[in-house]
Structure formats: structure tokens, C-alpha cells
Amino acid sequence: MTESAISMRGVRKTYRFFALDDVDLDLPTGHIMGFIGPNGAGKSTAIRILLGLVHQDRGDVRVLGHRMPAGQVAAKWDIGFASEDMRLYDAMTLGWHMRFIASIYPAWDKAYSEMLLKRFGLVPEQKIRGLSHGQRVKAGLLLVLARRPRLLVLDEPTTGLDPVARHEILRELVSVVQDEGRSVLFSSHHTQDVEQISDQITFIDRGRIIDSMDKETYLDRWRRLRMEVPSGARLPVLPGIVKLRQNGHLAIATANAFRPDLPLAYENAGARVQRVETMTLEEIFVANVEQSREEATV
Amino acid sequence: MYLQIMEQIKQKIAVGDWREGDSIPSIRQLAADLSVSVITVKRAYLELEREGVIVTQQGKGSSVAGGSELGARLHEEELESLLDQVARLATLMGLEPAELARRLGDTAGQEPATKRIRKRKAND
Predict the structure, then answer these.
(1) A235 with A244: CB under 8 angstroms?
(2) pTM of this prediction?
(3) Are residues B28 and A197, on separate chains, in Cβ contact within 8 Å?
(4) What confidence category does residue A294 fall into, taking pLDDT thresholds of 50, 70 and 90?
(5) Sign of the CA dihedral running A277, A282, A287, A291
(6) Are residues A236 and A269 in contact, defined by beta-carbon separation less than 8 angstroms?
(7) Exposure winner among A223, B3, B44, B55, fewest CB in 10 A?
(8) Interface contact flag, A174 B31, Cβ < 8 Å
(9) For the segment A190-202, what is each residue's pLDDT rounded down to a tens digit?
């Protein structure tokens, strides 16, 4: 049995206006986890805690077998972290950065770094100052990928990129876990990207983990039922339904704990079920946040 | 998303690119080829196995199942599902079964609609 690449237990961090509360999280080795949630939900705080950059008030954090933050220095050799605000030296070339990182990390893979240069369409002689946003993101990612870290942690790696650049990066991330010993955690607002390449999905809102499980199970729990309702009838909100909207003769029920017998239950309640639709992660994201906000105001 | 992958694999089998007994890519390999998550491909393979389209042997990977006339069966399934859609639409439009059958017969006797439209455009 392989151990988790990341495990967080009962992690708490309190700031004046924000608290990360009782966070439990597990990333199995060899998996890609998509970390999603609205702005200010606590994604970056959680990421900084597991990197040892921010110390938790309490709770247990283990990354690649190291206890954090105590094992931060030892863990760093095996973790590759890239965020939007990667600090590169503007006056230096990409090639200079590559040689610099290679001199620090013995695991630097020269052949892979050269292949990435080609794939990402980057020129080593170019100074960082002259790079576009997309090229800068790709350069930062190249510097991290070519170290061949056992764990990649990426904060919004595809934000602000054009569709082609995004696909190049997603393809690279999927190819990382062809080696079953490597794992990826990435946060993103791009639900489509998360849906495409994640094995695990963790959903966070206002400092709390709402859901954390494998993607297929997660998507499978959500369905939308489109129904026709006879005049005058009101449909009940059955167990597993988070939202029921009835307008004239049409009703839409959103389920977050779908069971195959749910359509039949509505038929028995007098509705005619027209369609049972699966939902995209984007739709689930919105429904989930709406629901948790409603619960909070009750 | 796993449904799309199942569909693609079935198509490959239906058109004969993958034949009975051929071994198919490993889950991680196909995930990398398609840039999708391992768990999605795993789910697709599991469902295909359940449907008897592929077989997986421990340690030997997966291969196309040796069922008889798999291509024909897949076509049959596709036809069934399309007919279901046609029937539903016909009910909504209030078409009588006889009228529906007549139109289906007419369509079957013609060139496919896409070709007809293309031809019409070419003549314009």
C-alpha cells in the first residue's frame, strides 16, 4: 500500500477575518487532485500550509512522509511549486534560470527540459523581461517540471492562458503521473480543466472542505431532472434533492445524492420525468456554492 | 467524460481499427494520449468490461473481447438509442406511428440528409 502524497488532518489556521477550519485532505500517490473553490475560499492558505510556508495553528500535515512544517527543508527537494507570482529575474534569460536551477537540484533532467522548451515554444536566450504572460507561466512551469519532483503543487497554473497554452500545460500534467510515483495538486478556477485531468476533486468554501473524493464518484452524485408537472400539482423536495424549481408545468430538480430510483419517486409524486441529465463540474460548482451559502444564512 | 471515452473506444472497434483479441493501451497510457485523468479512463474501461466489450486480465492488460459480431452489436445499440430519440420526438409532435413509419421509409430510401444538403449547396 502506497502512502498518501499529501495528508492533512484537523488543520486549522485563524486570521483576523478568515479561518481555515478542520481541514482533512488526502492525495493518494500517483493521482492528480484538482482543488476548487470561490475566491477567498482558502485554497492558497491550504497550499501554503502544506508547503510549510505558513504554519498551521493546529492539526497534522504530512507531505511525502515529512511532517510539516518541521520537515520543510527535507521535503523541498521533492516538491515543485509554481504559482502565478513566480519570482524570476527579469534581467536574466530563461537559459540562465535553467542552469541556475540545475546547479541546485541534482535531479534536473536536461533532456526533458530541452523537450519542454520545444513543446512550450520557448527560447532560452530570451530575457524574462521580454516574455508574455503565457510564456512566463510556461517558463516557470518548465523550471519546476524539469526537476522531476515527486509532488507538483500548482496554484492556478492555467489562469490567463490562451486555449492552446492551457492544453499544452494540461497535457504535460497528465504525462507527469504516467509515473505512478508522482502526484499533482493544482488549484484552478477553470472547472473544465479540473474536470478533464483530475483524479480527485477537493471543493473548499469559506475555509471548510465541502467535498473531497475521486472525481467520477463526485460527478456521479449530481444530476438534473427535468419534469413535466400536471396543473395544480406541487412536487415534494425528496431526499437527495438540493434544489427544486417549479415554473408552470415545468420543474427542474437538482440532486447531489442521486439514486437510480429518484426519477421513479417523482413519477409516483405525479411528475413526468422528461430527462435525467448529468452535470458539468461548472454547474456543480455553482449549485454547491449556492447551497452552502443558503445553509449559512438560515 | 468517461461516456465519451467509451464511445470513442466502441467506434474504434466498430470500424475495425481495434479487432477481437487486440490488446488495447494501458489505462495510464490512454489517459496520457487523450490528456484526461487516469480515473476517467479507468471508469470507461470498467464499464466497457461490464458491457462485455473488453476483457481485462490481471497483469496482462486489456483487450477487445471475443464476442461474436461486436461491431454489429454496437451498431444495433446505436440504432436502438437513436430510434428511442425519434420515438420521443414523434410523441412530442403528435405524429401517428404510421406517419412516422412512412417518413422513416422515405428517409431510408434517400441519400443521407447531409449529402443532400451538400449537393444542394453545390448546385446553388
Answers:
(1) yes
(2) 0.83
(3) no
(4) confident
(5) positive
(6) yes
(7) B3
(8) yes
(9) 999 999 999 999 9
